[in-house]
Structures are given as structure tokens and as C-alpha cells.
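Anyone have C-alpha cells for Putative dehydrogenase? Sequence:
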Amino acid sequence: MTTAKRRVRMGMIGGGEGAFIGRVHRLAAALDGELELVCASFSRDPGNNARTGEACGLSAQRLYPDWQSLIDGERRLPDDQRMDLLVVVTPNHLHVPISQAALEAGFHVFCEKPAATTLADARRLAATLEACQGLYGLAHTYLGYPMVWQARRLVSDGELGTLRKIHVEYPQGWLGTNLEGTGNKQAGWRTDPAIAGASGCMADIGTHAFGLAEFISGHHVTELCAALGIHGEQRRLDDDGDALFRTAEGASGTLMASQVCTGEENALKIRLYGDRGALEWQQMEPNTLIHRRLDEPMRVLRAGIDQPGLAPEALQRLRLPGGHPEGYLEALANLYRDFADAVRRGERGAAAGVPGMEEGLRGMAFIEALLESQAGTAKWTSLADISQRHDAEATT
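Reply: yep, here.
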């Protein structure tokens, strides 16, 4: 007789009524029945907090007025009742203080990206994680898609030969007008340096493009040349940007991220070119992966548990036969499922298959390299130089 896996107990900070991403996280976490929401502080507004808690079926005793009260209250509960992990779906400026406090209190953390608003803060959080030996996951949702894993496998198996060129883009159009001036909360905090950090568009979606490029290719970006722009009236943070980059493994690439591309939705797309083949994947058509081979007809790989030729790591992230679309919620659910398994196994640091602190640090180094490149006159800006500078500052 087998023993049923216990559901991992989850708390949430942020994600109250009117916040898109909080509901997405709750739906994704519930999809496979392996996690349960047991406590939350959804909003600093008492009415919003109460309404969201009622909608989620939480008892008043496990609904807290702020994140400090939640961490303290849950820490005092017996081990078999308190939450196992805390999900952080707040604006950027709260990611580090909440994550750090939760790790120090003995809880695992699954956080929205970016990991921090500065590389220095991300490095301090990494030190906390190492000292506390909890688990830390980062919601790079697109890395949960099965065909992204299929693409990664084809590259690592040498199907593309020597990788020469990487092109990744993420155009959106939702900030094409002065939406923050209308009272839109999502636009408001994303364009406020005090809340979002020193970058707008690149921190919000450019990090997704960067992470996807490094994940599929297995390459590490070493230097870049960037041009960031601000098109919104009286906007203080970048809403558009382009970068050339080079990798340690010898490829060159381009990255574009923009939130002022009229008519675009969430058109994340990546193309990789080697001397023997090429790959193309689009987030808005996630079940399709195009594989171009040298001197052979193009082939189209399709997602589905019954599709031949898919790698095991792609198949284990699929739930349905071919022709039944699996999308954004399922991709995030894959990260939650892998994270829950890691919690039950007692893993520490990083959960297998889930982006974590390493990706968080890489993302922040990428953002700071972009900003330095934009502000300076050097042709190329090195990510390693930025990290080494932080090392030197930390020892002085």
C-alpha cells in the first residue's frame, strides 16, 4: 500500500483583488493538487484583503494584515499546521525584504521576478539563502513550457551543431499610451523607480527574454551593447530597448524587449542558429517547435503526451494528448509541481527544474549591464566586470 503524498502548504503575500498575477499563481499552484493555500496577506487594504481571502476560502485566523504579521504568525504555529513555503507576488521593491525574512524564519520562498531591484540586494539575498539552507524559486514562467525543454534538449544533443546566432524578442504594446496617468495600478508601479527599480521594461520582460535565451542555448552572455528608450510622456523608466550580446561559448545575439509596440500582446519569440540546424519557438504558439536541418526539409514538433520523438523532460511537463493546447497556466504549474516535490524531498538551495537564485543573480547582472551600457560610451559592457565590482565593494 502506497502512502499518498501530502500537499505542500503555501502562503501568499500580495495578489489581492485586481492583481492579475496573484490569481494566476493560485490557479497554477492548484492545478495538480499538490499544493494548498493555507494563509495569506493579499493586500494592505483591509477590505481587499478580506474579500480576496473569502474568495479563496481562507479562515479569518490565517488572513494577516501585512507580510510581517504573516511570517511571525506562521512561525509560531506547529510544524504540521504552518505553511511550508511563501509565494511573493508583490511589486519588485518588496521581493528581497519579504524573501529574506521568510528564509530566516525557516520557510521556503517562490518569488515573482526579478529577484531584486539591484544586484547588491540580490547578492545579499543569495547569502541569506546559503546561510538558511531553504529553497528559493523564481517565477520565470516561460521556462516551464514543455517545448522550451524540448528545444534545450535538441541544442544540448548537438542537433544544431555549433551555435552561432541567438535572436530573442519580447514585444508588448500595453504601455503605448500614458496608462500610468489614468490610475492603472499595474502601470503605475512598473513605471515608478522607487517600486520597480532602475529599469522598467527590461526588468519586467527583458529578463524573461534573457533567461529564455540562456536556458535553451546553454550559453552564458558575457558582454552586451544596449540602447534603451523612453517613449511614454513623462515616463521615468525604459519602456523599450535593444541589445547586442556575445556569449562565452562563441555565439552572438540580439535581444529586443518593448512595451510600446502597438498591437502586440505577449509575443515572446526565440530563434537559434547553428552550423547544422536552427530552432524557432513562440510563446503565443507554445505547442509548436520548428526545427530546421541543414540540407533536409523543415520539421515541426508538436506538444502532446502521445507525440513521437519528444524528450523525456518535455513529456514529463505535458498532461494532454496532441491537439489539446497547454499554455501559460500549465507552464507555471510545472514550476510549482517541481518546487513542491523538492520541498517534500527536503532539498535545499535550488529545486531541480525550477529557476532559482542563480537565474536571479544573472538577471540582475543583465539589467545593470544594460543600464551601464546605456549610460556610458564603451562599445561593450561586461557582465563579469559588474559582478567583480560588487565583489570588491562587498570586501571594502
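Residues 357-375 form the longest helix (19 residues).
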